Amino acid sequence: MQPSLPDDLISIAESYGVDLKYINFEVTETAAIPTEMLRHLMTTLISHGATFSVDDFGTGYSNIIRLANMPFSIIKIDKSILWNYFKTRDDLVPRIYEMLNIEGYNLVTEGVETDEMHLWLRDVAHCKYEQGYLYSKPIDEDNFKKYLSEHNCRPISAPVKKPSPAGESMAAM
C-alpha cells in the first residue's frame, strides 16, 4: 500500500546485486489490494525484469476478469482445485487448465501428492510445474541451506560490493 514500494524493492535488489529477472513476486488471491495500485507496482517491477504470479488461484478474490486485467505470467493453482478434481472428476477442472494454457500462462499446481496426480497434470492438464509432498515437504532454514550447499547454490546473505572504477582498472593490469 506504499507508493514507494517498487522503488524500494528495486533499490534492495541492486544493493544485493540481484537482477530482478530472477525474482518472481507472488500475489495471493486473498490480498485485497486496490487494482490500480497493484497494476502500478507490477508494471514498474516488470519493466525492471521481475515477474508476477497469482497464488492460490481458485480461492479468495480469484476471477477471470482480474487475471485479464493484470500482467501475471504465472498462475499457481490452489491445491483445492486438484484435490476436488480427484474426488469428483468434474469436467470443469480440465477446462480451467485448457483455458489458462490457451491464454499462455505458466501454470504451477500446488498440492501434488501422488504419481496419479502428476501424470494427470502432465498428460491431460499440460501443467509444466508442480509442487507438493510428492516432491518435498516444507523444510526449515537449516535444511534449506544444506540443500543449497549440496546443489552448489549460493545463498544471498550480504550486499554485493561493487568494485570502484579504479579497482577494476588495477585488476585488469
Give structural notes.
This protein has a five-stranded parallel beta sheet with strand order 1-2-3-4-5. The protein is globular. It is α/β, with parallel strands linked by helices and 173 residues long. It has a single domain (5-139), classed as TIM Barrel (Alpha-Beta Barrel), CATH 3.20.20. α1 packs parallel to α2 (35-46). The protein contains eight helices and five strands; from the N terminus they run αβαβαβααβαβαα. It comes from Candidatus Weimeria bifida. One of its GO terms (molecular function) is cyclic-guanylate-specific phosphodiesterase activity.
Mean of residue pLDDT values: 85
Give the spatial strand order of the biggest sheet: 1-2-3-4-5
**Shape annotation:** globular
Q: What fraction, in percent, of the residue positions are helical?
A: 40-55%
Structural class: alpha/beta
For the sheet with most strands, the description reads: 5 strands, parallel
In whole angstroms, the N-to-C terminal distance is: 49 Å
The CATH architecture category equals Alpha-Beta Barrel
**Elements, N to C (H/E):** HEHEHEHHEHEHH
% residues in beta strands: 5-15%
Low-pLDDT parts are 158-173
Provide the CATH topology: TIM Barrel
Give me the number of helical elements: 8
List how many beta strands DSSP finds.
5
Rg calculated over all Cα atoms: 20 Å
According to CATH, the homologous superfamily is EAL domain
